[in-house]
């Protein structure tokens, strides 16, 4: 049996002592479906944590909850900003592109079984500098997503309880609950929560969709006399930045793709990954299109953002109450996958990675606790956190779900240009170059749009104070 190790494995072996976490099989390759041996977690030993335990159906649910949260309720605003036809096309095209980037994630994992998360991707693409960059960028992105989720949970609690207590108290509740749930060790166990979260969010979406369809008019519309929804197939009054803001919203809503690396890394049969991916992307795209088209058609210019407030106070309370478990699960997954990347990097190459040792639990709980604490501090200490999340989404979100995957595919397939002259190969080269160029363009324009939004918020005086107790649910 060959003992050939990849560059990543040699680097870990050099930094952590003898490599104990990687078991090569075959002629210098790994059997990626062999659940007894893994290029990241090593030999599966009795009494140790079995990370490789996620089936394809559970993987689908985890991936769905990585993507679908209350961001789905921003889809009607995409159609409002661009018009019905361009908005639907933007959602559909971004759905197709992120399906391809998700496919690239699976290909890259098969080609580089030793990669678990984005730090490993960075190492393969750009050596130690790439690993350090993604070791910061990926957890930071997940921490900002978690902080955004904390704010959303506080909005939900304020909406349901009519602001029964200080908003910071609700964020503390979100932080404590997330720490407890995200500390679950494996994605297989987290998937149980995924089912609850998926049903919760889909039920909330169904409630608001039915409510806006059967009500006489949206809550924000004039309640007596004639009213005009002002819906259009094409919004001729839209601006370039408004359109790019809509594109960024959709890209951000699909930006869970990098977390798919964690999912395929813990699947029992990683070759089933594409099945989970296609089911996930199909459900997500269908959901985004349905909620976007239906709510925009019935509400038009009188949309609330998020859309849960479009059908009046009572429906808003019910919908947020139903959505709360789904919000907690989304934040749990963001925190879990971000912390897991740090955890694996710190303990990889040692027996503590899978054994129930004191070091294992201290590092794992410390990593989760650190991520949750930073998310809380960021969410509460930055007055324009919502706009900042949009800025982070435009930069890191686009980088993670478009630019990096284009680079990953070109890295693994660029040498084929000397031997593969087929139209199919050339088309894939063009597609992945387009992903990189389009992603950089979206990053630039999205950053511009988010910066202007922050400036406008300051000018309008809508920026709140840090750690404010004020009710944050009135505008939604």
UniProtKB/TrEMBL annotation:
InterPro entries according to UniProt: AA_transpt_TM (IPR013057)
TM regions (residue ranges): 61-79, 85-105, 136-156, 162-181, 193-214, 234-255, 276-298, 318-337, 358-379, 391-411, 423-444
Membrane-related topology note: Multi-pass membrane protein
Region (Disordered): 1-25
The keyword Ligase appears for this protein: no
Keywords attached to this entry: Membrane, Transmembrane, Transmembrane helix
GO cellular component term of the entry, any: membrane
Localization, UniProt: Membrane
Ranges in a coiled coil: none
Domain annotation Amino acid transporter transmembrane: ranges: 54-449
Gene Ontology MF term list: L-amino acid transmembrane transporter activity
Protein name from the UniProt record: Neutral amino acid transporter
Organism: Kwoniella heveanensis BCC8398
